[in-house]
């Protein structure tokens, strides 16, 4: 997949055409890798168009390009350079209006200078112009569709499914934004690529929630496996997360209304759900240990 540099010029930005141009390039199959709204100084504009220095239009072009903000873009697509230049149309907007009226310059440009947009004409110029506006951008190749699909299935879907399952169990409210916010916080807290720091008080359980003694009969105690310990810790975290959310919601309600603590059916159900989820985790671990004793 090829990358190219594109720019929406001051005339199109000041007229508000940049919204239409951005929409059209996305409809044209271009992916926006980077975008920046920039006000060029005259010196920076002169540096960018240095290859045209000495030509009759150079001074006018530099004045124009420093007259207002531009939108600099890094675009990606198969054959992105030729694709973007085709979408822009002929350099002179007068010609574009006659020959390619549906092109960007045909619709939004005025003449050869005030022509709405700019695009790199070769891989070398694309690399130079991208570096000019985005010096810190690393131009790694974009993954092909098959690779991207595999990555999503292997690395994104498992975590997302866990988060959506937790959301369904929690049911924060009927408000869509609250549900989205809850899921966003859950994904941040459970990012598998980042170690999670858990406060000590989050791991503490109420006395009544401590695991009941498990009688293994004459077989004696069975040492927990790593998997079982991880499940137990996960159960604790799930429960503490539920209770933390409930506590924050109670605090918010107290701030907004009279300072009267009311235990609603919904709050009681949330508390029961938290305990039940932990019990399910631990019950599963207990059944596994019993099965191990019977088959051992």
Produce a short descriptive summary.
This protein is of the alpha+beta class. It is built from 13 helices and four strands.
What keyword list fits this structure?
296 residues, alpha+beta, Alpha-Beta Plaits, 2 domains, 4-stranded antiparallel β-sheet, 13 helices, 4 strands, 57% helix, 9% strand
Q: Can you walk me through this structure?
A:
This protein has about 300 residues and is an alpha+beta fold. The protein has 2 domains: about 1-135, 2-Layer Sandwich (Alpha-Beta Plaits); about 155-295, no CATH class. The protein has helices at about 10-15, 20-25, 40-50, 60-65, 80-90, 95-100, 105-110, 125-135, 145-170, 175-190, 200-205, 225-255, 265-295; strands at about 1-10, 30-40, 70-75, 115-120. A 4-stranded antiparallel β-sheet has the order 2-3-1-4, sandwiched between helices. The longest helix has about 30 residues, at about 225-255. It is elongated. About 20% of the residues are buried. Mean pLDDT is about 80; it is low at about 210-225. One of its GO terms (biological process) is GTP biosynthetic process. It catalyses: a 2'-deoxyribonucleoside 5'-diphosphate + ATP = a 2'-deoxyribonucleoside 5'-triphosphate + ADP; a ribonucleoside 5'-diphosphate + ATP = a ribonucleoside 5'-triphosphate + ADP. InterPro entries: Dpy-30_motif, IQ_motif_EF-hand-BS, NDK-like_dom, NDK-like_dom_sf, Nucleoside_diP_kinase, P-loop_NTPase.
